[in-house]
Amino acid sequence: MLSIKKPIRYWMGFLFFVSAINTCAQTVSQPITHNVPQRIASLNICIDQLLWELVPHERLVSISYLTADPIWSPIAKQVQDMPLNHGLAEEIVPLKPDVIFAGEFDQRSPIELLQKLGKRVERLPLPRKLDDINEQILQLANMIGAQPKAQQMVANINTQIAELKAASAGKAPLTAFWYSSNGVVIGDGTLEHEFMQLAGLRNLAAERGMFGFNQLDLELLLSARPQILIVEEGSDDAFSLAREYLSHPALQHADFKVIRLPAGLSGCAASVIGDVASTLKQELTK
């Protein structure tokens, strides 16, 4: 009997050991959630839009009031019932957020006050090129425990960018201006310029040595004879001189194709980049 019991005990001990190892492995493979912030506040309209896509909405204790304004935000109707803030520390502190997100150019004084009060504030830089957008999405996701959704978002963006680039392959480049509010054209060193290159367009503003955002007289724009004029949809509705420029008879009857893109690339690139790439590809292949 002893010769039988010993192997049984050995086998039982071995199985217990294997089971313990599997349990430990499963525990290690599970994401650690106790340090992931559950109560999230944001002072920035662009970060709001990313958070809206990445986390359950009940985790958002406050977002910027601009995100509820349809003039500025594509998700305005969806966030009507969300608690809103105007970037003030006194609005945020009573909500007891685990983390507060702000942009690179948001007001410094309330952010510094929140930090002095011991609040965790994370400031995200403004994306200045296409690669920066993916980095921003993944950086934010790492802070809030939303890596799988962020990776899918980045994969979708990369696919749309690749499709835009492929659509222009082998074609003769068309000349274009990216036309913004108040007669401003967008030159080198911008996301818009990078998009135009991906789309196989010659940026006439960049070819004239323009960097960033520059005002260009309507007469000079027309004399350059662009084949394409790119306009962001929001520019039509902005309360500014943009209306006069974009509705000018000379533009209405000029011999070039007008491509209208979703607004927001300059301000909230990460949330619209996929739509911009998809629309630009569709318009250029018509």
Summarize the structure.
The chain has helices at 2-29, 45-54, 89-92, 108-116, 130-144, 147-168, 191-198, 204-207, 218-223, 233-237, 242-246, 249-252, 269-284, and strands at 40-42, 60-64, 84-85, 99-103, 121-124, 174-180, 184-186, 201-203, 213-215, 228-232, 257-261.
Could you describe the 3D structure shown?
With 286 residues, the chain is of the alpha/beta class. It has 2 domains: 40-124, Nitrogenase molybdenum iron protein domain (Rossmann fold), CATH 3.40.50; 154-284, Nitrogenase molybdenum iron protein domain (Rossmann fold). It is 48% helix and 16% strand. It has helices spanning 2-29, 45-54, 89-92, 108-116, 130-144, 147-168, 191-198, 204-207, 218-223, 233-237, 242-246, 249-252, 269-284; strands at residues 40-42, 60-64, 84-85, 99-103, 121-124, 174-180, 184-186, 201-203, 213-215, 228-232, 257-261. The strands form 2 sheets. Strands 6, 7, 8, 9, 10 and 11 form a 6-stranded mixed beta sheet that branches. Strands 3-2-1-4-5 form a 5-stranded parallel beta sheet, sandwiched between helices. Helix 5 runs antiparallel to helix 6 (147-168) and helix 6 runs parallel beside helix 13. The longest helix has 28 residues, at 2-29. The protein is elongated and about 60 Å long. The model is unreliable at 1-6, 12-33 and 235-239 (pLDDT under 50).
